[in-house]
Amino acid sequence: MASLAAADRIAAEVAGVIGGAARSVILHGSLAAGDFRPGRSDLDLLVVVDGGLTDAQAAALQRLVRQADPGAAAGIDLHVITADAAGTASRAPALELYLGRSSTAMEVERRVPADPDLATELSMARAGGRALTGASPAEVIAPIPAEWVIDRGRHWLTVWRSLTDDTAHAAFMVLTTCRIWRFAVERVHCSKPRAAAWALRRDPALTVVRQAISQYAEEPAVVSEPALAALLDRVIGETASG
């Protein structure tokens, strides 16, 4: 697969920039899970380093991501975290560097002292990631308590409850709600399509999930605002005790 070859190539180049301090470059997300969609999915990479990055290394990684060929991927999503931060469970780990490249923009975050969404990212990478270079995910990422992942998911469910009129992101909210829901019930991380299928097995009457699947696949569909609100209320209620 061209995208997997692109991920391998980028991982090798990242390790080359960092040198001996590179502990692991881990592929996770849709490409690792087998749900990659050409032109829609990103390459998701987590880099674990000893001792952090120099400013020169951070700048070199930014140039690398900006210029890299992502194959059939829509963009590149790269997190860099120190081995100490990855190896110690925290609700809000420190982030050494984030680089997010889309077709229209480049996002850069450097030395974020506490990132409350990173614990979920680490949990997902540990569960479903694969090392392209270096140590395996389980060797470098500490187990993240499921309750922390659920709590952060519930935070976003509550935020989205006031954003149900955001039609541009409605399908994303529905499908990510299904991911949060399944993890809370079964402690299983999975892709958006698999989470949607799980939710429909649980309740085939969830038309809003079918609407979101259609919109996610770029088919004509409108996600019902009242149905989205009802789904959020249901999942907020069902995840209240973890």
UniProtKB/TrEMBL annotation:
GO MF, any single term: nucleotidyltransferase activity
Keyword Transferase: yes
Record's protein name: Putative nucleotidyltransferase
Positions of the Adenylyltransferase AadA C-terminal domain: 139-219
Cross-referenced InterPro entries: AadA_C, NT_sf, Polymerase_NTP_transf_dom
Keywords: Transferase
Domain Polymerase nucleotidyl transferase as annotated: residue spans: 24-55
Record-linked Pfam families: AadA_C, NTP_transf_2
